[in-house]
Amino acid sequence: MAGETMTDAELAAALAEAAGKILCDVRASGLITGKALGKAGDETANQFLVHALKQQRPDDGLLSEESKDTAERLSKERVWIIDPVDGTREYGEERTDWAVHVALAIGGKPEIGAVALPGLDLVLRTDQPQLLPPAADKPRLVVSRTRPAPEAVAVAEKIGGELVGMGSAGAKAMAVVRGEAEIYLHSGGQYEWDSCAPAAVALAHGLHVSRIDGSPMVYNQQDTWLPDLLICRPEWAERVLAEVAKLPA
To answer: Where, in this chain's numbering, is Mg(2+) bound (predicted)?
Structure first.
């Protein structure tokens, strides 16, 4: 990969796509299934992404879900934040709602990124934004298919919305980008690698991205825990934030 001749956005997309293909090959081998498949996929994709980024962007910082974190990245302006398999459970169950996240945070902001949806043979990226499809009359909120956040359920009731269960954070966020939903409201806790690439891609497509109190998403922090996230159509942002603010603490 001639990474040095690629822009950062091109590199992010190429890496996300290549990691997705590796993961599909691992799964298609049929030699591993279930939780073991998820573990093998995580390890294999992580090794590829980490080695590629260290080779192509050696001066940048790096934060990965599957690698031991160090304080070195905290002094860097540019930090790659990756999730080799977002939705390990869905990947292991041979579903399509899992993703590969490759993002570049600059000065703590989710500036550049790509989210691959290998099960759908798609890569959504910050440098190739598409027009948002028309919104549905009745807002659709993507939520966890196993444990929907109480806040999302409450907001859906207030705005007359419909809940749509889905797997990984990346798949949910990209459902809003792709016009399959209007709102992704998450309050159950995530880490930086869960949302950095989806946030970057969503912003590039003109969506609203913030914490559920309306404050901006900030990355490359010492504590990588991010409690909540709102990605939604801009026309819904004010209403959703207002409804969240009314919820009991």
So the answer is: 65, 83, 86, 194
